[in-house]
Amino acid sequence: MYFRVRAPHIAHILAVVPKQAEGVVEWRKAFGKQWDERLSEQTGITQLRKSRLSTLDLGLAACAVLYKNQQPPQAIISITQTPAQAIPGNAALLAAAMGWQGRGIAAPLCWDFSMGCAGMVWGMYQAALLLQQTGIHEVLLVCAETHSRIVAPTDRASRLLFGDGVAAMRLCKQKTKENWHFALGSEPDGGQLLGCNPAAHLQMDGIGVFNFVVKTVVPAIEAYLKHQKLSKNDISCFLMHQASGFVLKYLQRMLQIPADKMPIALDGYGNTASASIGILLAHHFAEKENPALKNALLVGFGSGLQWGILQCDLSGTEIGRMKYEG
Amino acid sequence: MLLMLSQTLEVPLNDLAVDFMLLNCPLWDSMSQLVIAAWIHQETGQTVNMAELKQAQTLADLKKIYTDRLSRKGADG
Predict the structure, then answer these.
(1) A191 reaches B (C-beta below 8 A)
(2) Is A192's Cβ below 8 Å from some Cβ in B?
(3) Stretches in chain A below the pLDDT threshold 70
(4) Do A214 and B41 touch (CB under 8 A)?
(5) What is the ipTM of this complex?
(6) Nearest CA of chain A to the CA of B1: how many Å?
(7) Alpha helices, DSSP H, located in chain A
(8) pLDDT (tens digit, 9 = 90+) per residue, B53-76?
(9) What whole-number distance in Å separates Cα of residue A26 and Cα of residue A160?
(10) The pTM is what?
(11) In the A/B pair of chains, how many CB contacts fall below 8 A?
């Protein structure tokens, strides 16, 4: 489905990942004879981030930078499938920890969404909707994931793929007649392809997820571009969710996107779900003058199953240098 | 198909007879199955699910899946 909403300005994006990492050395040790080099070749990951830091810890580290000299936002949207605690959600915990309540400051509205890899795009839609309201001038969107907590240490496919991280952005109301056009979609019947019960570990059907990408995500991207009367040449940069090297290369081939227009940032981070596009931006575009982000296409896809697509201008956005925490 | 299987499973081409037992191959795992699924999609435009590939015991079973997808490709026009 397509949605149109007045475009906010994305003032600042910042990504934070744990200092602590694990990689080939640890995996070799953990999997013994089951380890082989094909694994890293296929995923494009020789190291990823994992730590004891919670999604709240990582979110707070991002906010400490984003709000160093800024007034608090009027709303916070938290996207995570691994919240710091079950109740309350990360948004309220974050507001409290930042001191954005009491002491004469109006408390921000706190929204929590349990969403995965499409979460950033869906969160941007929610933020843009909130910014249409009187009294909401700024929304903080925090996409954080600590999948290392729910991955079974013995599950080779998942342990070598999913990393921890956060991407946060400040979205501000702006006087413009420009709109954002979203394509958002769900395939709930495929939800079990990538899922997790509360007391269990993450389970992934890699072929099922691959099939979702080729049967649903690729046609959705093509349909979105057609709907927006855009060609692939009009897009300055394809910012894809960093699923895995194998999936991204296949997707790139199917869509015939030149490699230099589709950056990848998997090695060193892993698949960080809803945070991955923000981490991708920080890895490739932090503090870069004139980044090729005027007509960026953001594509999130994964657990749910869900996907979200947005073409937007990130050329005026401050993209902070990657922060390492812990 | 044989060349792809030979490279993916790291088995000499000459060893890939129709009765080649996939289960005896050390590299027959979820990773190689994903590569095979992607190859079949690339060649036929059709998808294969994990259960189908896991059920395959011999090279003949894999060929059957591939042939089935090829015929569907033909049927799709």
Answers:
(1) no
(2) no
(3) 102-105
(4) yes
(5) 0.93
(6) 18
(7) 24-31, 38-43, 55-66, 90-97, 119-130, 156-159, 206-212, 218-227, 245-255, 276-285
(8) 999 999 999 999 999 999 988 676
(9) 10
(10) 0.95
(11) 38
